[in-house]
Amino acid sequence: MEIAVRVENKYxxxxxxxxxxxxxxxxxxxxxxxxxxxxxxxxxxxxxxxAPIPAIPSNCPHVLVxxxxxxxxxxxxxxxxxxxxxxxxxxxxxxxxxxxxYLLLKHHGQNLFKRTKPKWxxxxxxxxxxxxxxxxxxxx
Length: 140
Ligand code: SF4
What we know:
The protein has helices spanning 2-11, 15-18, 23-31, 38-47, 61-69, 76-90, 95-111, 130-134. It is mostly helical and 140 residues long. Helix 5 (61-69) crosses helix 6 (76-90). The longest helix is centred in the last third of the chain and has 17 residues, at 95-111. The protein binds iron/sulfur cluster.
């Protein structure tokens, strides 16, 4: 209800038309909605076709960081930014490529990268994973 009222009152019922202008301003507008922080804003910017942001699934920022560094940071925001930097530097800044990267990370995080019942021995990228190489769970 709150979201609908905001879209109606602030954007005349057309949120898409209201999300124009500098990216920082659009991001701030999105973050005024309930439960939308940076990961949610990034996801909307990418999947809404507004900007090919290196969005990361909010519950999986550790996936890419563990693969590359072996361990994620204690701070969620730092881990999220490191995952974004990895996408930024290695995935072309196109909607298709970054959407695919987002969906692959999400799929990987939900299906292989489980904290309980890990499926690391079956992981197709374990030979390239720093976490698998240094964590005893990965050798079971
Ligand atoms: S080996 Fe384990 S930690 Fe590494 S990418 Fe695969 S599922 Fe993730």
